[in-house]
Amino acid sequence: MAIRQDTIWERFLSPVVRLLIDEQSLRRYAESVDWEKESANFRRDDVTIPSYYTSQNFHGIEGGYLNRSAAVSYDPITQYVVPPNETWVRQALIDAIRVQPRRILDLGCGTGSTTLMLKQAFPQAQVIGLDLSPYMLVRAEHKAQSANLDITWRHGNAEKTVFKDASFDLVTASLLFHETPPTVAQAILHESFRLLVEGGQVLILDGNQNTLRQLEWLNDVFEEPYIRDYAAGSLDASMGAAGFAAVQTQDVWWINQVTSGVKPILRENTIKISVGQYAPTTDTTIDNNDLEDFGSPAFGTKA
Ligand SMILES: C[S@@+](CC[C@H](N)C(=O)[O-])C[C@H]1O[C@@H](n2cnc3c(N)ncnc32)[C@H](O)[C@@H]1O
């Protein structure tokens, strides 16, 4: 039987990060929440959990994300593993937005760190964070309440959501793609394409594929089962294969990247808009319990 090599994360970084974390206050928070009751508010029976998701540890989050300990420890760990500064890196995604979104979907939103920033950047927009872990959504909702932000959290699989075609004009994902096998990442891009209006934008923030390829040892640092596949791939190519145009990737502090793509506007519809036949919905209300009935949002680009 092969002897498992401990990762650098397990041997060196995890003990250091654990030293930096205020475990007592985390424990107090964890114990103050009725996790089963609150997660039941999000949990949907029709969501099937894929096997890639439950069989692995992810950078020190033992047992994956389907438990309260992942939801409690994710933010304190992540602040130390997204250099040089977690907020600056997330801000790069916000800065890359080229649309004036009215409906935003953040896929694999986790505890909602990027989702909250999206809502702060576009307070008028309806913002939805979707994740496979109802426990992560509980933490996300607590953060939204503390920040006084009205965000909808949805239990679901980013590969196949329940939303109608063309329901959003911005779809984002941060730190999700390096945690998914290539076929899943491609399925998520296809789903993003389906969910966007024509002219809508997709933005993927994640590890820098060039850097990860050049510094192979970096892939050993974190306990990430799919990061080598992610590093070997090209998000530009994957987005192109999903149908996106104007695809471009920019470096974010060398170790991360943000990749943008736009769902092309069909010529037929361009003509419709130019002759004034296009009638965007003016209804901006949203029933949180019935998101399947989303209409297509109107769409405007920033000057
Ligand atoms: C590394 S965390 C990133 C969380 C958050 N986006 C951030 O930037 O901090 C990855 C998240 O993706 C979620 N996830 C993984 N696969 C998913 C899928 N197929 N559909 C929805 N969420 C998924 C996990 O539950 C986890 O919360």
From TrEMBL:
CDD domains the record matches: AdoMet_MTases
What GO biological process terms does the UniProt entry carry, in alphabetical order?
Answer: methylation
* Classification via SUPFAM superfamilies: S-adenosyl-L-methionine-dependent methyltransferases
Q: Where is the Methyltransferase domain positioned along the sequence?
A: 104-200
Keywords assigned by UniProt, alphabetized = Methyltransferase, Transferase
Keyword Transmembrane helix found: no
A molecular function (GO) held by this record is:
methyltransferase activity
InterPro entries recorded: Methyltransf_25 (IPR041698), Methyltransf_Superfamily (IPR050508), SAM-dependent_MTases_sf (IPR029063)
Q: Name one Pfam family in it.
A: Methyltransf_25
Which residues span the membrane?
none
Q: Which PANTHER family does UniProt cross-reference here?
A: METHYLTRANSFERASE (PTHR42912), METHYLTRANSFERASE DOMAIN-CONTAINING PROTEIN (PTHR42912:SF80)
Q: What is this protein called?
A: Class I SAM-dependent methyltransferase
